[in-house]
């Protein structure tokens, strides 16, 4: 691992799209809604380059699989719960990631005034 004073590398995957049955209103848990997930990982990923070792960097396909498992899993009432479950599982499986940001976005939230989305972002650090 490099010194903490070195600049960390950043890998981001944006707007992974899913349909999921989550929300506080019962109709949301029946009909569902569109969700997007963003994941940003920081770490010292240059160590992966020499032998092109995926396990020494951030595997964004793991981010997609983890988010899909949570979004397609049991209904949750809060996007905060979805974000937390994605982040906890992903951070536990990515030893070379020193900081992880996960954003969950619910498109067209069911409120009285039109809105593009509601979102939550959470951060994990080692």
From TrEMBL:
InterPro entries: Dihydroneopterin_aldolase (IPR006156), FolB_dom (IPR006157), GTP-CH-I_C/QueF (IPR043133). Residues 11-124 form the Dihydroneopterin aldolase/epimerase domain. SMART domains: FolB. Pathway: Cofactor biosynthesis; tetrahydrofolate biosynthesis; 2-amino-4-hydroxy-6-hydroxymethyl-7,8-dihydropteridine diphosphate from 7,8-dihydroneopterin triphosphate: step 3/4. One of its GO terms (cellular component) is cytoplasm. One of its GO terms (biological process) is folic acid biosynthetic process. It comes from the Bacteria. Keywords: Folate biosynthesis, Lyase. The keyword Lyase applies. NCBIfam families: folB (TIGR00525), folB_dom (TIGR00526). PANTHER family: DIHYDRONEOPTERIN ALDOLASE 1-RELATED (PTHR42844). Catalyzes the conversion of 7,8-dihydroneopterin to 6-hydroxymethyl-7,8-dihydropterin. This is 7,8-dihydroneopterin aldolase. It comes from Rhodohalobacter barkolensis. The gene is folB.
């Amino acid at each position: 691992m490099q010194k903490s004073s070195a600049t960390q590398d950043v890998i981001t995957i944006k707007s992974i799209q899913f349909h999921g049955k989550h929300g506080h209103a019962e109709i949301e848990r029946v009909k569902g809604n569109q969700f997007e997930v963003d994941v940003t990982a920081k770490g010292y990923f240059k160590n992966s380059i020499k032998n092109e070792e995926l396990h020494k960097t951030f595997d964004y396909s793991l981010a997609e699989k983890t988010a899909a498992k949570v979004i397609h899993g049991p209904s949750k009432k809060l996007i905060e719960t979805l974000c937390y479950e994605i982040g906890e599982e992903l951070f536990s499986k990515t030893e070379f990631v020193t900081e992880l940001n996960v954003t969950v976005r619910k498109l067209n939230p069911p409120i009285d005034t039109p809105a593009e989305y509601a979102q939550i972002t959470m951060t994990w650090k080692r």
